[in-house]
Amino acid sequence: MASASLVFNKIDSTYSKLLLKHAQQLFAFADTYRASYNISIPQVQTYYNSTGYMDELLWVASWLYLATADQLYLRYVTAQNGNVFAN
Question: What top-level branch of life does the organism fall under (predicted)?
Answer without folding.
Answer: Eukaryota
